[in-house]
From TrEMBL:
InterPro entries: DUF1093, YxeA-like_sf. Pfam families: DUF1093 (PF06486). Coiled coil: none annotated. This is YxeA family protein.
Length: 117
């Protein structure tokens, strides 16, 4: 193999590793579990057919019990039900990127023990 081919392969490997790290940083999710409390604030629509957005501060815990304060906004004007459990997808780059309601049985034990303290 020539030096030029070897150098090209090394550059491609470094480039692929860099792109993979960027993708992971932007898209990788860590899931946090919490219980819905009171409504924090509301962004009211300005009459342009967009629904109101309801914001909640969720004390979230991952499956190892690590804490993170999450500011979660509802989609399509949907209010959360106080006391229900929620699973929140969070990324280092974008913050909260998804959420879904879950049952108590779906919450990992480490997170559940912290939520119920």
């Amino acid at each position: 193999m020539s030096k030029r081919t070897t150098a090209l392969i090394i550059v491609l490997i470094v480039l692929a590793a860099g792109l993979g790290a960027m993708y992971y940083q932007n898209m990788a999710r860590e899931y946090y579990y919490g219980q819905v409390g009171k409504l924090a604030n509301t962004d009211e629509s300005k009459g342009n057919h967009d629904p109101d957005v309801y914001w909640y501060n969720i004390k979230g815990y991952n499956k190892q019990g690590k804490f993170r304060e999450l500011h979660v906004g509802s989609y399509q004007g949907h209010k959360f039900t106080k006391g229900h459990y929620i699973k929140v997808g969070w990324s280092q780059h974008k913050g909260v990127i998804s959420y879904e309601e879950v049952s108590r049985d779906q919450v990992p034990k480490q997170a559940l023990s912290k939520i119920n303290m």
